[in-house]
Amino acid sequence: MTEERSDAWAAEAIRRVGMRGPQTVPTPLRRLPLPGIRGIEVYLKDESAHPTGSMKYRLVRAMFREAIAGGAIEAGTPVIAATSGAVAVAGAHFASLLGLDFTAVVPARTPGEVLARIEGEGGRWQVAERPPAAVQEEARALAERLGGHFLDHFTDAERAVAVCGEPTIADEIFVQLGRERHPVPEWIVTGAGTGATSATVGRHLRRHGHPTRLTVVDPENSAYFPAWASGCGDYTTGMPSRIPGIGRPRTEPGFLPTVIDLMIPVPDAASVAALRWLRTVAGIEAGPATGTNVWGVCHLVARMREAGVRGSVVTLIGDTAGPYLNTHLSPSWVRARGLDPAPYEADIERFFRTGEWPI
Ligand SMILES: *Cc1c(COP(=O)(O)O)cnc(C)c1O
Predict the structure, then answer these.
(1) Whose CA is nearest to atom 14 of ligand 1?
(2) Thinking of the domain 9-51+164-354, which architecture would CATH place it in?
(3) Which of 27, 48, 52, 55 to mutate to test the pocket of ligand 1 (most atoms within 8 A of CB)?
Protein backbone atom coordinates (compact mmCIF):
# COMPACT_ATOMS: atom_id res chain seq x y z
CA MET A 1 0.00 0.00 0.00
CA THR A 2 1.34 3.46 -0.90
CA GLU A 3 1.68 6.27 1.57
CA GLU A 4 -1.03 8.20 -0.14
CA ARG A 5 -3.55 5.38 0.05
CA SER A 6 -2.96 4.75 3.72
CA ASP A 7 -3.60 8.43 4.47
CA ALA A 8 -6.76 8.31 2.42
CA TRP A 9 -7.95 5.27 4.37
CA ALA A 10 -7.26 7.03 7.66
CA ALA A 11 -9.07 10.18 6.58
CA GLU A 12 -12.11 8.21 5.48
CA ALA A 13 -12.00 6.08 8.64
CA ILE A 14 -11.88 9.14 10.92
CA ARG A 15 -14.80 10.59 8.98
CA ARG A 16 -16.82 7.40 9.42
CA VAL A 17 -16.08 7.00 13.09
CA GLY A 18 -17.05 10.61 13.75
CA MET A 19 -19.96 10.42 11.31
CA ARG A 20 -22.20 12.18 13.72
CA GLY A 21 -19.23 14.60 14.13
CA PRO A 22 -20.13 18.24 13.53
CA GLN A 23 -23.85 17.48 13.58
CA THR A 24 -23.40 15.27 16.66
CA VAL A 25 -26.71 14.82 18.36
CA PRO A 26 -26.20 15.14 22.11
CA THR A 27 -27.74 12.37 24.21
CA PRO A 28 -30.97 13.56 25.86
CA LEU A 29 -31.09 15.24 29.26
CA ARG A 30 -34.12 13.88 31.13
CA ARG A 31 -35.67 15.36 34.24
CA LEU A 32 -36.37 13.09 37.21
CA PRO A 33 -39.64 14.06 38.89
CA LEU A 34 -39.20 14.92 42.60
CA PRO A 35 -42.76 15.39 43.87
CA GLY A 36 -41.71 15.72 47.53
CA ILE A 37 -38.96 18.31 47.01
CA ARG A 38 -39.16 21.98 45.97
CA GLY A 39 -36.44 24.12 44.43
CA ILE A 40 -34.15 21.24 43.45
CA GLU A 41 -34.04 19.65 40.00
CA VAL A 42 -32.42 16.34 39.14
CA TYR A 43 -31.40 15.57 35.55
CA LEU A 44 -30.32 12.29 33.99
CA LYS A 45 -28.06 12.52 30.94
CA ASP A 46 -29.26 9.50 28.98
CA GLU A 47 -26.11 7.83 27.67
CA SER A 48 -28.10 4.70 26.87
CA ALA A 49 -29.35 6.60 23.81
CA HIS A 50 -26.03 5.99 22.02
CA PRO A 51 -26.28 3.48 19.13
CA THR A 52 -24.73 0.66 21.21
CA GLY A 53 -26.82 1.44 24.30
CA SER A 54 -24.13 2.60 26.71
CA MET A 55 -21.77 5.44 27.57
CA LYS A 56 -18.82 3.27 26.43
CA TYR A 57 -19.78 4.27 22.88
CA ARG A 58 -18.28 7.70 23.57
CA LEU A 59 -15.04 6.28 25.02
CA VAL A 60 -14.56 3.68 22.30
CA ARG A 61 -15.25 6.22 19.54
CA ALA A 62 -12.51 8.47 20.95
CA MET A 63 -10.14 5.48 21.22
CA PHE A 64 -10.73 4.49 17.58
CA ARG A 65 -10.17 8.05 16.41
CA GLU A 66 -6.90 8.34 18.33
CA ALA A 67 -5.69 4.90 17.22
CA ILE A 68 -6.42 5.76 13.57
CA ALA A 69 -4.85 9.21 13.86
CA GLY A 70 -1.71 7.70 15.41
CA GLY A 71 -1.45 4.88 12.85
CA ALA A 72 -2.16 2.06 15.32
CA ILE A 73 -5.29 1.13 13.34
CA GLU A 74 -4.91 0.98 9.56
CA ALA A 75 -6.78 -0.75 6.75
CA GLY A 76 -7.07 -4.43 7.70
CA THR A 77 -5.84 -4.09 11.31
CA PRO A 78 -7.68 -6.60 13.53
CA VAL A 79 -8.97 -5.02 16.75
CA ILE A 80 -9.00 -6.93 20.05
CA ALA A 81 -10.65 -6.08 23.38
CA ALA A 82 -10.46 -7.78 26.77
CA THR A 83 -14.03 -7.71 28.08
CA SER A 84 -17.51 -9.01 27.40
CA GLY A 85 -18.99 -5.69 28.51
CA ALA A 86 -20.12 -2.52 26.81
CA VAL A 87 -16.61 -1.79 25.46
CA ALA A 88 -16.73 -5.03 23.46
CA VAL A 89 -20.15 -4.16 22.02
CA ALA A 90 -19.00 -0.66 21.02
CA GLY A 91 -15.64 -2.01 19.77
CA ALA A 92 -17.44 -4.49 17.49
CA HIS A 93 -19.67 -1.65 16.28
CA PHE A 94 -16.84 0.67 15.22
CA ALA A 95 -14.67 -2.14 13.82
CA SER A 96 -17.53 -3.29 11.66
CA LEU A 97 -18.15 0.29 10.51
CA LEU A 98 -14.53 0.27 9.23
CA GLY A 99 -14.60 -3.25 7.81
CA LEU A 100 -12.11 -4.51 10.43
CA ASP A 101 -12.12 -7.85 12.25
CA PHE A 102 -12.99 -7.57 15.92
CA THR A 103 -12.40 -10.14 18.66
CA ALA A 104 -13.39 -9.82 22.31
CA VAL A 105 -11.47 -12.05 24.72
CA VAL A 106 -14.18 -12.79 27.29
CA PRO A 107 -14.10 -14.32 30.77
CA ALA A 108 -15.30 -17.93 31.15
CA ARG A 109 -19.02 -18.33 31.87
CA THR A 110 -20.01 -15.09 30.11
CA PRO A 111 -23.80 -15.39 29.54
CA GLY A 112 -24.98 -16.16 26.02
CA GLU A 113 -27.08 -12.98 25.78
CA VAL A 114 -23.96 -10.90 26.38
CA LEU A 115 -22.04 -12.74 23.66
CA ALA A 116 -25.00 -12.31 21.31
CA ARG A 117 -24.73 -8.54 21.65
CA ILE A 118 -21.09 -8.65 20.50
CA GLU A 119 -22.08 -10.84 17.55
CA GLY A 120 -25.03 -8.55 16.83
CA GLU A 121 -22.55 -5.72 16.19
CA GLY A 122 -20.49 -7.92 13.86
CA GLY A 123 -17.81 -8.98 16.37
CA ARG A 124 -16.35 -12.34 17.39
CA TRP A 125 -15.46 -13.57 20.86
CA GLN A 126 -13.23 -16.20 22.35
CA VAL A 127 -13.20 -17.46 25.91
CA ALA A 128 -10.04 -16.63 27.84
CA GLU A 129 -7.95 -19.59 28.93
CA ARG A 130 -6.45 -17.69 31.83
CA PRO A 131 -8.22 -16.56 35.02
CA PRO A 132 -10.28 -13.32 34.90
CA ALA A 133 -7.43 -11.16 36.23
CA ALA A 134 -5.24 -12.21 33.27
CA VAL A 135 -7.79 -11.64 30.48
CA GLN A 136 -6.12 -8.34 29.57
CA GLU A 137 -2.72 -10.00 29.19
CA GLU A 138 -4.25 -12.69 27.02
CA ALA A 139 -5.92 -10.11 24.76
CA ARG A 140 -2.69 -8.15 24.47
CA ALA A 141 -0.82 -11.33 23.48
CA LEU A 142 -3.49 -12.17 20.90
CA ALA A 143 -3.23 -8.67 19.41
CA GLU A 144 0.55 -9.08 19.12
CA ARG A 145 0.20 -12.48 17.47
CA LEU A 146 -2.31 -11.16 14.91
CA GLY A 147 -0.47 -7.89 14.32
CA GLY A 148 -3.60 -6.23 15.63
CA HIS A 149 -4.53 -3.37 17.91
CA PHE A 150 -5.45 -3.99 21.54
CA LEU A 151 -8.25 -1.66 22.59
CA ASP A 152 -6.94 -1.10 26.12
CA HIS A 153 -9.72 0.99 27.64
CA PHE A 154 -8.31 1.07 31.17
CA THR A 155 -5.08 2.60 29.92
CA ASP A 156 -6.19 4.62 26.90
CA ALA A 157 -9.82 5.80 27.20
CA GLU A 158 -9.21 8.71 29.54
CA ARG A 159 -6.46 10.24 27.39
CA ALA A 160 -8.29 9.55 24.10
CA VAL A 161 -11.37 11.42 25.33
CA ALA A 162 -9.20 14.29 26.59
CA VAL A 163 -7.45 14.84 23.25
CA CYS A 164 -9.91 13.73 20.54
CA GLY A 165 -11.38 17.22 20.20
CA GLU A 166 -15.05 16.24 20.13
CA PRO A 167 -17.60 17.82 22.45
CA THR A 168 -17.31 15.87 25.70
CA ILE A 169 -20.13 14.71 27.92
CA ALA A 170 -19.39 17.75 30.13
CA ASP A 171 -19.64 20.17 27.18
CA GLU A 172 -23.02 18.67 26.33
CA ILE A 173 -24.30 18.84 29.92
CA PHE A 174 -23.52 22.55 30.26
CA VAL A 175 -25.07 23.44 26.88
CA GLN A 176 -28.22 21.46 27.64
CA LEU A 177 -28.55 22.74 31.20
CA GLY A 178 -28.16 26.30 29.88
CA ARG A 179 -31.82 26.21 28.95
CA GLU A 180 -32.98 25.14 32.44
CA ARG A 181 -33.82 26.96 35.67
CA HIS A 182 -30.49 26.23 37.38
CA PRO A 183 -27.99 26.13 34.48
CA VAL A 184 -24.91 25.56 36.65
CA PRO A 185 -25.48 22.40 38.69
CA GLU A 186 -24.52 22.09 42.34
CA TRP A 187 -23.30 18.55 41.75
CA ILE A 188 -22.50 16.18 38.91
CA VAL A 189 -22.59 12.52 39.94
CA THR A 190 -20.99 9.59 38.11
CA GLY A 191 -19.42 6.21 38.78
CA ALA A 192 -15.88 5.24 37.77
CA GLY A 193 -14.94 2.26 35.61
CA THR A 194 -11.99 3.38 33.48
CA GLY A 195 -12.22 6.73 35.29
CA ALA A 196 -12.47 8.58 31.95
CA THR A 197 -15.88 10.11 32.53
CA SER A 198 -15.17 11.47 36.02
CA ALA A 199 -11.80 12.80 34.83
CA THR A 200 -13.46 14.50 31.84
CA VAL A 201 -16.13 16.12 33.99
CA GLY A 202 -13.69 17.11 36.76
CA ARG A 203 -11.26 18.72 34.32
CA HIS A 204 -14.10 20.58 32.61
CA LEU A 205 -15.32 22.03 35.91
CA ARG A 206 -11.86 23.32 36.80
CA ARG A 207 -11.00 24.55 33.33
CA HIS A 208 -14.19 26.64 33.19
CA GLY A 209 -14.07 27.71 36.83
CA HIS A 210 -17.53 26.33 37.56
CA PRO A 211 -18.56 26.12 41.22
CA THR A 212 -20.16 22.73 40.45
CA ARG A 213 -18.67 19.88 42.48
CA LEU A 214 -18.04 16.33 41.29
CA THR A 215 -19.19 13.27 43.22
CA VAL A 216 -18.10 9.76 42.28
CA VAL A 217 -20.22 6.90 43.61
CA ASP A 218 -18.44 3.60 44.14
CA PRO A 219 -19.81 0.05 44.61
CA GLU A 220 -18.67 -2.62 47.07
CA ASN A 221 -15.22 -4.21 46.54
CA SER A 222 -13.93 -1.30 44.48
CA ALA A 223 -10.43 0.12 45.01
CA TYR A 224 -11.47 3.64 43.99
CA PHE A 225 -13.10 4.89 47.20
CA PRO A 226 -10.24 3.70 49.45
CA ALA A 227 -7.70 5.05 46.93
CA TRP A 228 -9.36 8.48 46.97
CA ALA A 229 -9.86 8.53 50.75
CA SER A 230 -6.34 7.35 51.61
CA GLY A 231 -4.43 9.14 48.84
CA CYS A 232 -2.82 5.81 47.98
CA GLY A 233 -2.52 5.84 44.18
CA ASP A 234 -2.13 2.08 43.71
CA TYR A 235 -4.76 0.78 46.12
CA THR A 236 -5.93 -2.76 45.31
CA THR A 237 -8.82 -4.86 46.64
CA GLY A 238 -8.40 -7.74 44.18
CA MET A 239 -12.17 -8.25 44.35
CA PRO A 240 -14.49 -7.87 41.35
CA SER A 241 -17.36 -5.38 41.41
CA ARG A 242 -20.92 -6.69 41.10
CA ILE A 243 -22.13 -3.50 39.43
CA PRO A 244 -21.27 -3.72 35.71
CA GLY A 245 -19.25 -0.80 34.32
CA ILE A 246 -18.15 0.66 37.65
CA GLY A 247 -15.86 -0.28 40.53
CA ARG A 248 -12.47 -1.91 39.97
CA PRO A 249 -10.30 -4.37 41.90
CA ARG A 250 -7.36 -1.99 41.42
CA THR A 251 -6.82 1.72 40.81
CA GLU A 252 -6.72 2.09 37.03
CA PRO A 253 -4.47 4.65 35.31
CA GLY A 254 -7.42 6.74 34.00
CA PHE A 255 -8.77 7.44 37.50
CA LEU A 256 -8.00 11.02 38.53
CA PRO A 257 -8.73 11.37 42.26
CA THR A 258 -7.55 15.00 42.47
CA VAL A 259 -10.57 16.38 40.54
CA ILE A 260 -13.13 14.52 42.67
CA ASP A 261 -14.74 16.55 45.48
CA LEU A 262 -16.63 13.71 47.15
CA MET A 263 -16.82 9.94 46.86
CA ILE A 264 -19.81 8.00 48.17
CA PRO A 265 -19.45 4.25 48.74
CA VAL A 266 -22.80 2.65 47.87
CA PRO A 267 -23.93 -0.79 49.10
CA ASP A 268 -24.77 -3.09 46.18
CA ALA A 269 -28.23 -3.76 47.61
CA ALA A 270 -28.88 0.01 47.55
CA SER A 271 -27.83 0.15 43.87
CA VAL A 272 -30.28 -2.66 43.10
CA ALA A 273 -33.02 -0.92 45.10
CA ALA A 274 -32.54 2.34 43.18
CA LEU A 275 -32.45 0.40 39.90
CA ARG A 276 -35.82 -1.20 40.72
CA TRP A 277 -37.29 2.12 41.83
CA LEU A 278 -36.20 3.76 38.58
CA ARG A 279 -37.88 1.04 36.56
CA THR A 280 -41.13 0.54 38.46
CA VAL A 281 -41.83 4.08 39.74
CA ALA A 282 -39.98 6.48 37.45
CA GLY A 283 -40.40 4.34 34.30
CA ILE A 284 -36.69 4.59 33.46
CA GLU A 285 -35.11 1.45 31.98
CA ALA A 286 -31.54 1.74 33.19
CA GLY A 287 -28.69 -0.57 34.18
CA PRO A 288 -27.39 -1.19 37.74
CA ALA A 289 -24.72 1.56 37.66
CA THR A 290 -27.52 4.08 37.20
CA GLY A 291 -29.01 2.78 40.44
CA THR A 292 -25.69 3.53 42.14
CA ASN A 293 -25.78 7.05 40.67
CA VAL A 294 -29.33 7.66 41.86
CA TRP A 295 -28.49 6.52 45.40
CA GLY A 296 -25.70 9.12 45.45
CA VAL A 297 -28.09 11.75 44.07
CA CYS A 298 -30.58 11.10 46.90
CA HIS A 299 -27.82 11.69 49.41
CA LEU A 300 -26.75 14.99 47.81
CA VAL A 301 -30.28 16.29 47.30
CA ALA A 302 -30.99 15.52 50.96
CA ARG A 303 -27.89 17.55 51.95
CA MET A 304 -28.99 20.47 49.76
CA ARG A 305 -32.48 20.38 51.20
CA GLU A 306 -31.10 20.26 54.74
CA ALA A 307 -28.92 23.32 54.02
CA GLY A 308 -31.75 25.18 52.22
CA VAL A 309 -29.82 25.21 48.93
CA ARG A 310 -31.74 25.41 45.65
CA GLY A 311 -30.24 24.22 42.39
CA SER A 312 -29.75 21.25 40.14
CA VAL A 313 -27.97 17.90 40.27
CA VAL A 314 -26.95 15.98 37.15
CA THR A 315 -26.18 12.29 36.84
CA LEU A 316 -26.04 9.71 34.05
CA ILE A 317 -28.02 6.81 32.71
CA GLY A 318 -24.93 4.78 31.81
CA ASP A 319 -26.65 1.87 30.06
CA THR A 320 -30.02 0.17 29.55
CA ALA A 321 -31.95 -2.38 31.59
CA GLY A 322 -32.12 -4.96 28.79
CA PRO A 323 -28.93 -6.92 29.54
CA TYR A 324 -29.80 -7.21 33.25
CA LEU A 325 -33.30 -8.69 33.14
CA ASN A 326 -31.96 -12.10 34.23
CA THR A 327 -29.40 -10.72 36.67
CA HIS A 328 -29.73 -7.51 38.69
CA LEU A 329 -33.41 -7.13 37.78
CA SER A 330 -34.24 -10.73 38.69
CA PRO A 331 -35.27 -11.14 42.36
CA SER A 332 -33.89 -14.70 42.52
CA TRP A 333 -30.49 -13.63 41.13
CA VAL A 334 -30.33 -10.83 43.69
CA ARG A 335 -31.35 -13.15 46.56
CA ALA A 336 -28.80 -15.79 45.52
CA ARG A 337 -26.08 -13.16 46.03
CA GLY A 338 -27.24 -12.48 49.56
CA LEU A 339 -28.46 -8.98 48.71
CA ASP A 340 -31.55 -7.54 50.42
CA PRO A 341 -32.68 -4.37 48.63
CA ALA A 342 -36.03 -4.07 50.48
CA PRO A 343 -34.95 -1.66 53.27
CA TYR A 344 -33.16 0.58 50.75
CA GLU A 345 -36.20 0.52 48.46
CA ALA A 346 -38.33 1.80 51.32
CA ASP A 347 -35.80 4.64 51.93
CA ILE A 348 -35.84 5.69 48.28
CA GLU A 349 -39.58 5.51 47.96
CA ARG A 350 -40.04 7.69 51.07
CA PHE A 351 -37.36 10.12 49.90
CA PHE A 352 -38.93 10.84 46.54
CA ARG A 353 -42.37 11.17 48.14
CA THR A 354 -41.47 13.28 51.17
CA GLY A 355 -37.85 14.43 50.90
CA GLU A 356 -36.93 12.59 54.11
CA TRP A 357 -33.66 10.71 54.03
CA PRO A 358 -32.05 8.56 56.70
CA ILE A 359 -28.76 10.15 57.82
C1 LIG B 1 -18.07 2.40 32.08
C2 LIG B 1 -19.29 2.78 32.80
C3 LIG B 1 -19.26 3.78 33.77
C4 LIG B 1 -17.99 4.49 34.17
O5 LIG B 1 -17.40 5.22 33.12
P6 LIG B 1 -15.83 5.39 32.99
O7 LIG B 1 -15.69 6.56 32.12
O8 LIG B 1 -15.29 4.14 32.37
O9 LIG B 1 -15.25 5.58 34.34
C10 LIG B 1 -20.45 4.11 34.40
N11 LIG B 1 -21.60 3.46 34.11
C12 LIG B 1 -21.65 2.51 33.17
C13 LIG B 1 -22.93 1.83 32.90
C14 LIG B 1 -20.50 2.12 32.49
O15 LIG B 1 -20.56 1.15 31.58
Answers:
(1) 245
(2) 3-Layer(aba) Sandwich (3.40)
(3) 55
